[in-house]
Structure prediction request, 350 residues.
Amino acid sequence: MPSSALDNRTIGRPLVGARPGESSMRALCFHRTGGPEVLGLEDMPRPEARPGKIVVRVAAAGLNAADVLERTGRYIEARSFPAVAGREVAGTVAAVGDGVTGFEPGQRVMGFARGSFADYALTIPSLLFPVPDNLDFVRAAALPLQGLTAYLALTTAGRLQPGETVLVQSAAGGVGLLAIQLARPLGAATVIGTASTGDKRGLIGSLGADAAIDYTGDDFEERVHQLTGHRGADLVLDAVGGDAFCRSLSVLAPLGRLIVYGRSSGEAGRVDTYDLIPRSLSVQGFALQSYFRQPELTARAMGELTRYVTTGQLELVIAGVFPVQRFAEAYAALEDRQIVGKVVLTLDDA
Prediction:
């Protein structure tokens, strides 16, 4: 369905009136996988705090490619139905369950909660992080998923060392825009980004990349080797897959690492493992969910990311902010791939 034909239709128990009651809330739900038409705003019961859980009153929620994959049934984790969409959240603590420490009602938080496209969301303490007073909820909602992915892909997974060269494929994507900015403070000497259009390459350069090149161009490998003194890149982050994955491998320096965290091309990258041996190359997959098992690591990383944002070292590129009632426009903005930067849905308090 063309994005121009989308409307904010409702399914299941549609909302009646503008605001839910005291014991209910608005929630963006889907009862089956499919196109944008499966989404609808519904009136449903508010979650209650249970032992070990926290209820967040949602002010803003980040919309990500993962939400589109989940809606279409192509995400790495399946959902049971009916499902409330969303996973990235910013807002205030509404209630805490028994056994929860370190959080109290009214506290400003950001992080992750399954079903964040609702007035209230239930989550666990290890997935929430404090929001400083000088960070608004829209920017707070734009940081956790893509920020942690960029930071941990560069550091923990990518093992970035001082003086190395980093190449970020699809650097105008949500993660790429942050990785380009984070690489140098984290030790990189040279930062190279790729993008498919001149405007995107201009943005990458303005955010600090030493060079921005077209990963689809015939001279891609030559350009990378020229920029690296024919040594190659020490660390490559790739969310494209397909041919870009093969090209990423071809420009790795000896002992180089390729971190794969997506396949926006729709095609998987293929590698003959024997080809890794001559240069002692490494290829590693990255899924942020795996790192949630290390809450101390993610908390430290979020602390660093928050510091970078509040001190002006890290710019969050916000492409569009939509009230939840305009969810169809928000999804269309993301899926049409005509925007650069983060899309955020706002609830009442953003």
Observations:
- Confidence is low (pLDDT under 50) at residues 1-19.
- The two ends are 30 Å apart (CA to CA).
- The longest helix spans residues 295-310.
